[in-house]
Design brief:
It is built from 12 helices and 2 strands; from the N terminus they run αααααααααααββα. Helix content is 78%, strand content 1%. The protein has helices at residues 2-16, 19-25, 27-51, 61-97, 100-105, 111-144, 151-176, 182-199, 211-219, 221-245, 252-260, 274-299, and strands at residues 266-267, 270-271. The protein has 303 residues and is an all-alpha fold.
Amino acid sequence: MNSFIGLTKRNLLIYFKDVAAIFFSMLTPVIVFVLYILFLKGTFVDALEGEAEMLKGLLDAKDLDSIANGLLLAGVMGSSLITVPFCTLTTIINDREKKVDYDISATPMSRVQIILSYFTASALSAFIMTTVIMTAGLIILCCNFNMYLGVSDVVMLLGINFLGSVCSTALFMLIVIFIKKSSTSTAFFGLLSAASGFVIGAYIPLHQFSEKIQTICNVFPQTGITSLIRNVLLNGVLNHIDGDLNGIDDGMFVKAVRESFSLSMRLFENDWSTSNTLIYVTMFTIVVLVALGIIYPKVYKRR
């Protein structure tokens, strides 16, 4: 057990002591934030005001800002849950390329312990980084806007973060198996960083894409995780708005916001509830973990 903890600690320190690794793993979330500051917030607020055109004077501008800022935080958290796990898992590739895995394999540790240490370090890194981002974001938003979040909502966010960290690590670990060179991993990471913001709907709401594109994007569990985060962050303010309107619009504004900003997954022309999304992500994670348990010990051979 001490060997497992020691190797896990070593893998964690490799990531957290490497400033460049942290920067590049957070590059997509930073891009999401910068784009939001430059024009995405205006686009989101304009879209919200368009939905509320018939309700002028009945909606608080701060509530609309709260929705836009909640979408920003969800996008930043969702993209972090993609880039951080993959960046941490590149330790496996670097160890293989530098023949460090020869030394690790020569230790009394079993292959399962070695593999689990890489997995644990990556999942913990993603969870820690996203939790820090979530905490900072919630403090800023709650100090400046009314997010209407309770303790139970924060606990739910932590649970979703943990599930997303485990799911992303399992999925990318399955991909890392087939990457043997750091140059290949760098190229793949570049593509991943460029595409992730679009796939999870951080830049453009998936509702604006065709049904086929929405289905393709929503097949990836990270999109479902981001959708779950959006729901927790925005449910409070949306319920507050619905209560303030008191049925004047028959709930159409809140319904339009949920559809326009993809608060629910849409697969094969059907809307999935949050419970269905949670079940899908959980089952996907279990399937990938089982696949890892079967494939990885065979690939990571003792030398």
